[in-house]
Every structure is written in C-alpha cells, then in structure tokens.
Amino acid sequence: MSTLSLRLRVFLFFGLIGGGGLAVIGGALWLGFRQLGDPEALSSFMTVGIVSAFGLLALATFVWRLFDENVCKPIEHIAAQFRVRANADISGQIDATAAKYLGDLAPAASAIHAKLGAAAQDTAETVAQKTARLERHRAQLLRILSDIPVAMIVATPDHQIVLYDGQAADLMECEAPARLNASVFDYLEDTAIHAALARMRTEGIERCEITTKGRSGAIYTGHIRRFDAEAGYVLMLEPLDPDAARPLVYDFDLFERNRPDDPDDADLRDLTFAVFDSETTGLDPTTDAVVQLGAVRVVNGKVIAAETFETLVDPGRPIPPGSTKVHRITDDMVAGAPGFPEACADFHTFAQGAVIIAHNAPFDMAFLHGCAAESGVDFDNPVLDTVHLSAIVFGGSAEHTLDAICDRLAVEIPDALRHTALGDAMATAHAFVSMLPILEARGLRTFGALRAEVQKHSRILKVQS
C-alpha cells in the first residue's frame, strides 16, 4: 500500500467502505428475512436491498469525489510545489488557493517555505560573495585559453570528449556534429591516437607530434599531450581558420563520470540526452509530414546551448494554412530544404549514444520510425517523455502540457520561439533539467528506476502540446 499514490489509496478506502456497507446491508436483510420466515416477503427485501445498495454506492462515490477534489488533489498540488522548491532553483510563493479546504495546512506550508527561502537567500549571498573572485579568475583563464592558436580537444582515458574550443568545433563539424561526452573516435580514426599514447607511455614522455585521419578522410596534424596517471589527454591540432572565434565548450565533471554497460544501471546525470521537437503539417503521423526538426543536448544535467540541431524539412506537399498559423513555416521557407530522410539521418548522428527526450514523445517518434526504411537509420535509442516525468513530479491530476510544465518550473518560452522546433526543444530540455533534481530526491537516480516509475504513469499519456 505504501507504494500507491494518495489518491489511489483514498479511492480504495472508499471502495472498502462501499463494499463493507453492501455486505452489512446484505447480511442484515438476510437475517431479517430468515427471522420473518415469510417467503412472500422476499421481493420486498430484495427491493430494499437494491435501493440501499445503489444509495450507499452513490453516496460513497459522491463523498469520494468531494474528498478527491478538495483533499487529495490539493495535497498532491502542495506536495509537488514543495518538491519543486526544495530541489530546483525556483523561488516564489506557494500557490495555496487549491488547498483552501485544508485548514491551516497551506498557510503553514507557505510560512515554512518563506522561512527556508530567507535562509537560502542569505546562504546564497554569502556563497556568491566568496565565489565572485574565483569567477573573475575563471573568466580570465577562459580568455587566455581562447587565444591559444590551436584546435584543442580534451578527452578522458576512455576517449570521451570533455572540452573543445571553437576551432576544434569547426574541425569536428567536418566529420560529425560537435558533442561533449562523445567519443574522439566519432571524429578521428583511432589508430594514430592509440599509437601515440602507447609510444608516450613506453618512452615516458608527455607530448609528441601526431598525424591522424578524420572519418571523412581529411588529414589533421598537431600534437598530443597525456596527463599524469592515465588521467586523459589533450589533442592540439592545426586549426582550419586561425582567425575564427574560439569559444570553449567544456565540463570537467565528465572526468568523474561512470559509464556502466547497462543504461538501466547508469545514474541519470551520467547519461547524455538529446531533447528534440518537430513541427509538422498536421497531427496524424500516418498521413502528415515533418517541416522542421530541432534538438539540443543535455550533458551532466546541463543544457549545452552550443550543441544544437535545427533544420527545415521539405515535406513534399503543400503546408496547410492552419498549420502555418501555428508554426509560421510556409511553403517558400521549406523550398530547397532537405527531405525528411536526409534530416532523419543527420539527426540520428546528432543523437548517437544519447537518450532521446521529447514532449509527447510517441507523436514525434512515430515520424522518425516511419521514415526508417527511407533514411536507412533505426532510432533504437532509449526514449523518455516529459509528459510522464511531469506526472511523476506533479501528480497525475495536474495539467501536463508543455506550457503548464514550464510555467510551474519557471521556464520561459519566448513567444518568438514557441512552436518552433528548436525553441520547444530548448524549453523541454530546461524543463527536464529542472525536474532532474526532483526525480533524484524521490530516489529515482538511475535510468532503470526512472523507467520503472514511468510505467506507472503511462495511462496519462495523451496528445498535449
């Protein structure tokens, strides 16, 4: 019983009252009929029993509905707001209007939240003051590193990328989409790198020249330096354009990440997520077509704004005016754009090795799966749906549209980006990142645990946009 939701337990409680009441009424009528001993009275006793049974069930159902609407749902609502404010970076007063029949519970909850919020604010100000100097030093270091005239890629001992600069990104994009936590060997052949690392270990040196071939066949030259104690290495290659911008994309926490063979055993923060959305000519995946795809990657629980995928798609048919009114994409805009099979293949490369996330995922995934034969790629990635995640965090009775979820999590969707594939994908990604600590606080730290919990909420999945 402890694993059941509050609403289900209350429903079972009232069901027990109703069933017990029917048993009591039936038993009393049977004893009365036996004591009377008149067979002709059976019809009267049955009438009384039927009327009493329906009356009792109607009363129990009526009272249960009142209890569900005015007690269970408000408690679920207050609990969800507590979880969000306790585990996500969200301030603001608790909405107590839904709990107006719960006496002093909502005001008491608001008072506790205000008290904790004030304490958290004081702590945050103290921490901010003490870290401001470190942030200034960090910014200075980044500016210095950004001026180093090489394309730089830093990798872990198992060849996962934890840093690349703008020059490296340009080089990587010639081979595949630039991605943190991707393998170096998605871009460069492994032979030269393995040989250089083996040579440095054998000769006891930390730096040597390297010439390696990209997956496209291009030749890249430069140097490779290994870190102490097999802690990883850095590739410093000749840039394609020495004068190009050099912003850094990095996450050194990836050095500490575990990579179990079974994704179900992996911590959620150890996984990479590709959050995507599509805009279409209509709402039927069997007859409609995609006109735009957009996606962004989430690595180590953070949205990587520099790693996005966006493309218009030629649907091969006129776009209905009603659909254009929603996503503002016209026939002229998609003229000359790639077809959906090509877009699918490109997105498959972008999402390689990642868990795919979408809002109302079955709808968007249906288009990708439907194009498998034409695109030549199979999307066998694990998939998560933010509708399900919202049900876990906020309860099944809450509204689970993307706008409602973002509103509860203080995720802003600029009007200009709403109903664009990348804009909605960004909003979905930020909503997922906000829900991640809440899920972890509920004990759902691994992908397997989350998938098991998702199964309990599969019934609430409907088309919600």
Highlighted features:
single chain, 465 residues, alpha+beta, Beta-Lactamase, Nucleotidyltransferase, domain 5, six-stranded antiparallel beta sheet, five-stranded mixed beta sheet
Characterize the structure shown.
The protein is an alpha+beta fold and 465 residues long. The protein contains 14 helices and 11 strands. It has helices at residues 6-36, 42-87, 105-146, 166-173, 190-203, 321-327, 331-334, 340-350, 361-370, 372-375, 386-394, 402-408, 421-441, 447-455; strands at 151-155, 161-165, 207-213, 219-226, 233-237, 248-250, 272-280, 290-299, 302-312, 355-358, 383-385. The strands form 2 sheets. The chain has a 6-stranded antiparallel beta sheet with strand order 3-4-5-1-2-6, with helices on both faces. Strands 9-8-7-10-11 form a 5-stranded mixed beta sheet, sandwiched between helices. Strand 4 and strand 5 (233-237) form a beta hairpin. The chain is elongated, with a radius of gyration of 29 Å. The model has no long low-confidence stretch (mean pLDDT 87).
What's the topology here?
Blueprint lengths: L5 H31 L5 H46 L17 H42 L4 E5 L5 E5 H8 L16 H14 L3 E7 L5 E8 L6 E5 L10 E3 L21 E9 L9 E10 L2 E11 L8 H7 L3 H4 L5 H11 L4 E4 L2 H10 L1 H4 L7 E3 H9 L7 H7 L12 H21 L5 H9 L10
Parallel strand pairs: 7-10, 10-11
Antiparallel strand pairs: 1-2, 1-5, 2-6, 3-4, 4-5, 7-8, 8-9
Helix pairs in contact: 1-2, 2-13, 11-13
The CATH class assignment of the domain at 260-460 is: Alpha Beta
Apparent shape: elongated
Order of helices and strands: HHHEEHHEEEEEEEHHHEHHEHHHH
The major beta sheet can be summarized as: 6 strands, antiparallel
- Architecture of the domain at 260-460, according to CATH? 2-Layer Sandwich
Strand content: 15-25%
Instruction: Give me the count of strands.
Output: 11
Oligomer state of the chains in this structure:
single chain
Placed side by side, the strands forming the largest sheet appear as: 3-4-5-1-2-6
Structural class: alpha+beta
Reported by name, the CATH topology of the domain at 260-460 is Nucleotidyltransferase, domain 5
CATH superfamily membership of the domain at 260-460: Ribonuclease H-like superfamily/Ribonuclease H
Q: What distance lies between the first and last C-alpha atoms, to the nearest angstrom? A: 34 Å
Low-confidence stretches: none
